[in-house]
Design goal:
Elements: E1 10-11, E2 20-27, H1 31-42, E3 47-50, H2 58-62, E4 66-68, H3 74-78, H4 85-95, H5 102-122, E5 144-145, H6 155-158, E6 165-167, H7 176-189, E7 193-195, E8 198-206, E9 209-217, E10 220-231, H8 240-246, E11 255-256, H9 264-271, E12 276-277, E13 282-285, E14 298-300, H10 314-322, E15 328-333, E16 348-353, H11 356-362, H12 370-383, E17 404-410, E18 417-420, E19 423-424, E20 431-433, E21 439-445, H13 464-491
Helix pairs in contact: 1-7, 1-13, 4-5
Bound molecules: flavin-adenine dinucleotide.
């Protein structure tokens, strides 16, 4: 008998017995798996959820529990911000990059508020308060923050800015565990059969259709017949082989974040004929914006050149750093704005001088590179604008108060957390598409196992991944339940 493999499904003819039978099998118990299982069960399907860990969680439980929601939520309105589905869609499309999934952006924008109501109906609490400023996550139990590049060029020119990061009510960072616990409670109440310590090692195919999976429990393979299977296994930031092959730029970074982001679901989907897209895309951030005065500094690369407007979302700026030549960039600050970056960021002072020429020399850069960049920046900042990178006037400050310093963000030693954004190509329904654009029968996927709403590292904004996981997880569950019912009707004798 052929051994089960992530890379090709087992033929149904090789299955001697079915150990478990279910309408819908969901693989992975993070946010996307929970939402898929929940909606599949509520859609009338019998659902079995397989999780390789000893309980629910995944990256979702490690997260901040922040979800990108817009269109005019109660909190946005209470804080005096105008937002609309159109503005949200426009921003999502810009944030999705050159190949943004317009169908998903439009659908999410039009249903974002009802999704927010759905989350609340599951018991997810929101305090309803806004925290101004540039922060990573609230240090309190507040709700709404600016979590992207909405106010920064070029986004502000094309999409009416509004804060859209909605954070679960939780004191401090890390409300993701609470979010998953609430979803898990609903999953269990909906009658989903949950199997933990259960690692899925292969799909099972009958011709082009996926009809089940092989799951390893207590080191023994169990054969599961399922009319529909939903892959919700997260991304692949913890699979070095896949990173080397598909996202080599991410290998520069030392801090993958997640739980079991091993890419197994993406591999199984590809093995079943599914297309995987944008596999080179990843989110990264080094939390350099805290304290906020540092945003008034300017970044230069090893050529002494500035490379973007520093008032963008910290992740967009961090991702652009990785495009620069060499293995580090420097944040230039003067005495007026200097502050020690938060310890987590592991940002060190690389050079200090009474003039920018001294800083330039101490960094070993050719004369008149860094200092020329600062001269140009200062000249225009004094006039209140930035014609080179369009940093907004609010964050412009002439860097003229000595001593001056270069803070080093080193890709290998500073804290550049990252996770992948590439994955299976899916319709908004969650159906996995093959390379010809046709659905693979019986196969669905959601979350970071897919290339979803967030699919461009340079445009990612906080909250977009969980928005995608929870919303399109729900869609995948609903579709899987409907597909399971339809396939059973076909199988019934007339
Ligand atoms: C520290 C941190 C903070 C973050 N903060 C935010 C935030 O505030 N907002 C936001 O939008 N995003 C945030 N993110 C990103 C976001 O949390 C993830 O991208 C998202 O939760 C992924 O959800 P998922 O359901 O796709 O995968 P996961 O939550 O990782 O779930 C996948 C599950 O599948 C299981 N699994 C994998 N392979 C198998 C297999 N073969 N068989 C069985 N089970 C398997 C895993 O064990 C895991 O439990 C954060 C991430 C981290 C790490």
């Amino acid at each position: 008998m052929t051994s089960p493999s992530l890379h090709r499904p087992l033929g149904v003819g090789e299955v001697a017995r079915w150990d478990i039978e279910t309408d819908v099998a969901v693989i992975g118990f993070g946010a996307s798996g929970a939402c898929a299982a929940l909606e599949a069960a509520r859609g009338g399907a019998s659902v079995t959820l397989f999780e390789m860990g000893s309980g629910s969680g995944g990256a979702s439980a490690l997260s901040g529990g922040e979800i990108y929601i817009g269109g005019g939520s109660d909190v946005q309105q209470a804080a005096g911000f105008e937002d609309s589905p159109e503005a949200l869609a426009a921003y999502l499309k810009m944030a999705g990059g050159p190949d943004a999934d317009h169908a998903k952006c439009d659908l999410y924008a039009s249903e974002s508020l009802s999704h927010y109501d759905w989350l609340k109906a599951q018991g997810v609490p929101y305090k309803g308060t806004f925290v101004p400023g540039k922060i990573i996550e609230p240090a309190t139990d507040d709700t709404l923050i600016w979590s992207g590049s909405e106010e920064a060029w070029p986004f502000s020119e094309q999409a009416q800015p509004a804060p859209r990061g909605h954070v679960i009510q939780f004191e401090g960072w890390g409300g993701g565990r609470k979010l998953v616990d609430i979803l898990e409670r609903n999953v269990r109440e909906a009658g989903v059969e949950v199997r933990v310590d259960a690692r899925v090692v292969s799909l099972i195919a009958d011709g082009p259709a996926i009809v089940g999976l092989v799951v390893r429990i207590d080191n023994k393979d169990h054969y599961v017949r399922a009319s529909a299977t939903v892959i919700c296994t997260g991304g692949f930031c913890m699979n070095q082989d896949m990173l080397r092959r598909y996202a080599p730029e991410a290998i520069k970074l030392a801090n993958p974040i997640g739980e079991n982001d091993n890419g197994s679901g993406i591999l199984m989907g590809m093995g079943a004929g599914g297309d995987a897209i944008h596999m080179d895309e990843f989110f990264t951030t080094c939390p350099w914006i805290m304290p906020e005065s540092l945003v008034k500094g300017i970044f230069v690369n090893r050529n002494g050149q500035r490379f973007m407007n520093e008032d963008c979302y910290h992740g967009r700026v961090s991702r652009t750093m990785i495009d620069q030549p060499g293995d580090r960039v420097w944040l230039l600050v003067d005495n007026a704005i200097f502050a020690r970056p938060i310890e987590l960021a592991r940002i060190d002072i690389a050079a200090v001088g009474e003039t920018w020429e001294e800083v330039e020399a101490e960094l070993g850069l050719p004369a008149d590179t860094l200092s020329a960049t600062v001269r140009t920046f200062n000249r225009y900042a004094a006039e209140g604008h930035d014609p080179v990178w369009h940093k907004s006037a609010k964050w412009l400050k002439v860097l003229d108060e000595p001593p001056f310093a270069a803070l080093e963000l080193n890709f290998a030693t500073s804290y550049f957390s990252f996770f992948t954004l590439g994955g299976l190509s899916t319709l908004p329904t969650g159906e996995v598409l093959d390379r010809g654009g046709e659905p693979v029968p019986g196969l669905f996927a959601a979350g970071r196992a897919t290339s979803g709403l967030p699919r461009w590292g340079h445009g990612y904004s906080s909250g977009m991944s969980l928005a995608d996981c929870t919303f399109f997880g729900r869609k995948a569950g609903t579709s899987a339940a409907a597909s399971a019912k339809a396939s059973q009707r076909v199988a019934e004798p007339a």
